[in-house]
Amino acid sequence: MKILLVEDEATIAVTLKDDLEGAGHEVMHVADGQKAIQRLGEEVFDCVVTDVRLPGADGLEVLKAAKRARPETEVLVMTAYATIDHVVAAMRAGADDYIQKPFLNEQVVERLARIGRVRALIDENRRLREDLRGERGLPGIIGQSRRMLDVFKVVRTVAGTDASVLIQGESGTGKECVARALHQLSARADKPFVALSCGALPETLLETELFGHERGAFTDAQKLRRGRFELADGGTIFLDDIDDMPLQTQVKLLRVIQEREFERVGGEETIRVDIRVVSATKVPLLDHVRQGKFREDLYYRLNVVPINLPPLREREGDVPLLVQHFVRKLSAGRAFTVKTDVLEAMSGYSWPGNVRELENHVAQAIAMAGDATILKKDNLLPVDKTRRAALEPPSEMQSLRGVLVEAERAHLKKVLRAVGGHRTKAASVLGISRKVLWEKLKDYGIE
Fold first, then answer.
1. How far is CA 205 from the centre of its chain?
2. Pairing of strands 193-197, 305-308
3. Does residue 304 share a domain with residue 157?
4. Most exposed residue of 4, 14, 124, 282, measured as fewest CB within 10 angstroms of its CB?
5. Handedness of CA 327, 50, 55, 69 (dihedral sign)
6. What pLDDT digit, counting tens, does each position of 99-117 carry?
7. How would DSSP label each residue in 293-332?
8. At a CB cut-off of 8 Å and minimum separation 6, what does 353 contact?
9. What's the predicted TM-score (pTM) here?
10. CA nearest 382: which of 408, 353, 417, 411?
11. Judgement on whether residues 289 and 367 belong to the same structural domain of the protein
């Protein structure tokens, strides 16, 4: 990263500059706040590391100038006066982090390394948005993890065909987004995309929704109604929660897929349609076939091309990208900031509700922000129940996650004992930042 170091104490500036350059950064040093503001108007910096007490102009003025010049510039504030007032003022002005003097240069290097990792993810997200129709991205889908790139590759390969696609993934993973991407990249993109959740309706209504009905077909059928298959003619029909479809309806669906024809409920006229069928399931559908809950012949008709959509916990590196995307999407033009350590903590959470849960928490944080522009960790990150479980008496019926949490807690205590309670050394041994170590100790109730 290109860093502007603003520090008037020569002993601190010289050693810190050497260590930052030793870590691979390009560093420019100035000892005056006014000169720093001038530099910010002339050059672009990825990060500003500034003292609070400076000649010419104080650190808060440098901070504000950095954000005016380039809002995405990260700012780390150094201060020997880390009172609540100083910290609050810096954070309100847009500081991304602060560190209290005296400090070890390694602490600053580690924080900037963490900032660099998150910035790399954000830059990659920007490239993906700019090239949604390029080789790597998909319309309406954010992701750069290996698992998602594999999904993108399959979607792009089969989008131009009429092959039936079965998308399997947990609730909230974005199955409909993938179905829409398949449609938008196909030759049917200018035709209808019609979606229906098979689990949202009782069997009688589901059949009517799919195939339509004639006037007088039943008591409330006051007029003819076209079904989803008719409405999707020429385009794509997306059948979500196909695992919830009753067996009787499965028989009729099989005929539509095989013959591309059907009759409306209460009708005799055979209606032919030109459609592509994309379906989705939240459970392994083959298990339903073995249990007699789903027709085997229909399964193989739907599962011509399988796409397995990974849960968010298996999409390494995608959480920061998604958070930034949802902040922009939901912020109504306001500029919000999510701290690097918060993004790290969010990346470590399991997100059982997947992308949908993550979006919900970003929306909640924005709603609770009031006049603030920094989104709080308490609103962005749910309480991880598995961490609570680690503080409870062990049980033979504990989940695998609970066992892992207990093991982590025990290992933390063991390492702390080995280094005599020295947190910086413990963090180095564990391969995590001191901030993450502090959060884990707080979560586990370790003194």
1. 35
2. unpaired
3. yes
4. 14
5. negative
6. 888 888 888 888 888 877 7
7. SS-HHHHHHH-SEEEEPPPGGGSTTHHHHHHHHHHHHHST
8. 171, 172, 360
9. 0.60
10. 353
11. no
Q: Is 164's pLDDT higher than 90?
A: yes
- Please write the tens of the pLDDT for every residue from 416-441: 888 888 888 888 888 787 777 777 78
| Number of domains making up the chain | 4
CA–CA dist 369, 184 (Å, integer): 36
Q: Tokens at residue 242, please?
A: 């196909």
Amino acid identity, residue 234? G
Residue 292, Cβ density class (10 Å: 0-12 exposed, 13-18 middle, ≥19 buried): exposed
How many residues are listed for the chain in this entry?
Answer: 447
Residues of the chain with pLDDT > 90, as a percent, come to: 40
What residue numbers bound the domain in which 336 lies? 313-382
DSSP conformation letters of 107-150:
HHHHHHHHHHHHHHHHHHHHHHHHTTTSSS-BTTB---SHHHHH
The encoded tokens of residue 28 equal 């420019």
Q: What is the DSSP letter of 83?
A: -
Token output for 86? 């100083």
The CA distance from 197 to 254, in Å, is: 17
Task: Give me 240's structure tokens.
Answer: 């979500």
Using an 8 Å Cβ cutoff, are 32 and 56 in contact? yes
